[in-house]
Amino acid sequence: MTGAPGVVISLDGRVALVTGAGAGIGRATARLLARAGAAIAVNDVDAERAKTTTDEIGAAGGHAVALPADVTHAEQVESMVAGCVDQLGGLDIAVNNVGMLRGLAPRAVVDLDAEYLRTIVDQNLVATLLCSAAEARAMVASGHGGVIVHVSSGETMRSAPMLAVYGASKAAINHLTKSMAVELGPAGIRVLAVAPGTTPTEHIVAAMSQEHLDAIAASTHQRTCVVRGRSTTLSDASSVCGHATAVPSISIRSSAKARRATPSSVPAGATPAAAVRAPRTPALAK
């Protein structure tokens, strides 16, 4: 059982699959869900990273299995989901976290080529589509419903210089989320999207200059509990992902009475949603 102050999450007896859980937001989310009591299927394209997260969960008293796979390939996605069901007994929660730039650097629109476009779209939109379709089939087959959380991006809420393809592919995930929520609702499956602001994970730091990261952080404005002028932290992003898996079953405790909430998309941490303007990136600030 875990959660932020005033929010208690209990996922005892649930099975959760987290993609991209070998590092960054995915790793932090997998560990949070494990602390809440869920058994975790840990996916990553890197088998060693998946094993490391699995071992960390086990060392903390949780239960996890490693399911390495490249989720941009349909046959590997099907095998991953089947492995989760076979090894952990089902699938109740899926967090589709794989995304970002797959090792590429931000690029201006005038410098885009077909290979770059396809790589970014595959890494974000296609991977999410393949995973969510396979996960939904497993949940429908079980007859028990479930919840699917897509990790979108705060960059979908404003212009994203140098990240236009990434932002567009994540914006498509937002639309996918709404459509899936309507389609799958009658089967008892909730579909939500979480939109973190730029989170300085190891992959982000490797892909972007510090000047670019600073420009993005400086462009954020206060929104709900967000601290203005800073980047989203792993705690911000993973906490919202974790809470999203439990909505509406979590109790949000206030001085009046517990209440329930069912958002369709949730900003996470230092989201740029309320930014007055896009950050002036180094390449475009001349």
The tally of helices reads: 8
The level of helicity is 40-55%
Give the biggest beta sheet.
Answer: 7 strands, parallel
Radius of gyration: 18 Å
Q: Which CATH class applies here?
A: Alpha Beta
State the CATH architecture. 3-Layer(aba) Sandwich
Q: Would you mind describing this structure in some detail?
A:
The protein is α/β, with parallel strands linked by helices and 286 residues long. The protein is 41% helix and 13% strand. The strands form two sheets. The chain has a seven-stranded parallel sheet, with helices on both faces. The chain has a two-stranded antiparallel sheet with strand order 1-8. Helix 2 (47-59) links the parallel strand 3 (39-42) and strand 4. The longest helix has 29 residues, at 114-142. It starts with 6 loop residues before the first strand and ends in an 18-residue tail after the last strand.
Features of the shown structure:
Rossmann fold, 7-stranded parallel beta sheet, disordered C terminus
